[in-house]
Amino acid sequence: MTTTLESPTAARLLAWYDRHHRDLPWRVSPPMAARGIKPDPYRVWLSEVMLQQTTVPAVKSYFAKFLERWPTVDDLAAAANEDVMAAWAGLGYYARARNLKKCAEAVAADHGGHFPDTEEGLRALPGIGDYTSAAVAAIAFNRQAAVMDGNVERVISRLYAISAPLPGAKPLMKQKVALLTPADRPGDFAQAMMDLGATICTPKRPVCSLCPFNGACQALAGHDPEQFPVKAAKKEKPVRQGAAFVAINDEGEIFLRRRIESGLLGGMTEVPTTGWTARIDGETGIEAAPFPADWQPAGTVTHVFTHFELRLSIWRARSVSQNDNHDGWWAPVTNLEDQALPTVMKKAIARAIPNAFAKMPLEQKSGIHS
Prior knowledge:
Layout: H1 10-20, H2 30-34, H3 41-51, H4 56-69, H5 73-78, H6 81-88, H7 95-110, H8 119-123, H9 130-141, H10 150-159, H11 170-180, H12 186-199, H13 218-221, E1 239-247, E2 253-258, E3 269-270, E4 296-304, E5 309-317, E6 329-332, H14 343-352
Parallel strand pairs: 1-5
Antiparallel strand pairs: 2-3, 2-6, 4-5
Helix pairs in contact: 1-12, 3-4, 3-9, 9-12, 10-11, 10-12
Protein name: Adenine DNA glycosylase
Pfam families: HhH-GPD (PF00730), NUDIX_4 (PF14815)
EC number: 3.2.2.31
């Protein structure tokens, strides 16, 4: 027996969204829109940058913290770089934080504190690519832009049973999204697709019986939605080696320094470490110590970045003299939350000083940081 599929329509999805939308701190929900509340482009942009490669639960507290400290894009533009990096620490992918600051400065200086309202105008800003420009244009300015994140890719790949593997299938997927995106309520449509992927069309065990597209889904008709999206075989990550040196003085302070602005973890705070990168190993032994001290081995830590795995040998020295700052500074171990420490450096410090982050999570989410 042949099953005749419906044609997928935005109207069916939007009706589902009106009833089942998630309430998120950066979102203007359908009931809010009915009361005349308009999206704030700054909040939309900030949330979209934070949500890239990160989960909604992890972002909520960061979003609230940023808004409390910098309620407008002009406030963020005027902030000190080190303050922004410290507030971002733990969210990962730190180039996003650097670009966030540059973009805020451009909006404040070149656009009078107002975001451009088109994809093209948004894409011209620092750090804004195809996805973010489409998302902000649709959600903040109601432009008919095709928005495609990981959730939307999953929904579209199943809806049309797209067998070509990612990432090569992305242009075809975006074409399908563009055809579905309505001229009316494109922002709600984009957010509905994201919500559908996050709550119904999940990677494992999707709840197809509750999906507004279930009568049109080609993957469901083929009885195997979980095989989509098809992904190209992953390459094995290379493993890099390095060392990190945790120095503590008699006042209970730890020696820190700032990484150079460019490159991996650029502009973030670190304990002294060796010259490892995604492509080369760094030294691992005591001979690479940044200054003389009674360095003792304190174990190893492993951290997974996007393109490689890093294994750091940890060295610890106590009662270190602070007469020479060695291009860094000393910070109380009890107040490290004020430092722009990426997760890998928190791991290194916690290996050397087990209680350093007793009240502070080492990871804001599971997954990859860089």
